[in-house]
Amino acid sequence: MSVVADSGGPQWPGISFGAPAEGAGAVASLGQRVGGFLVDIAIAAGVSWLFTAPEAPKNWSLLAWGVVTIVCVGVIGQTPGHFVFGIRVATFGRPGQRFLIGLWAVPRTILVGLVVPALLRDRDGRSLLDKLCHTVVVKTR
């Protein structure tokens, strides 16, 4: 958590939309997001390799990662890597549907695959892809 004293009082990522500074519902750190992504690509590569061995999985890993990410984020709001790092994707600005991402998982996954939009973040910790897809990544614990 990065709390910064400001002329208006303490600040942290997500304060402008009511996210807590710590714990469940707080904005996930970049480290947690990257860690979850690395776990997901390792799982996708391993599963793909099971089907292509002894050859390298090549683009099958990317396909496996994309399918798992779209299905998992769209239906339950988190991938296996997100689960390991205690984070999930939540919709932004629709309180009654806080964990139902649905079809927003498709463009979100494509943008994550491009990496750059996922790394560009505002002071609330929301990435460019989060803004485009009306989402925010939050901690679950």
UniProtKB/TrEMBL annotation:
Keywords: Membrane, Transmembrane, Transmembrane helix. It comes from the Bacteria. The keyword Membrane applies. The chain crosses the membrane at residues 34-51, 63-87, 99-120. The keyword Transmembrane helix applies. This is RDD family protein. It comes from Nakamurella antarctica.
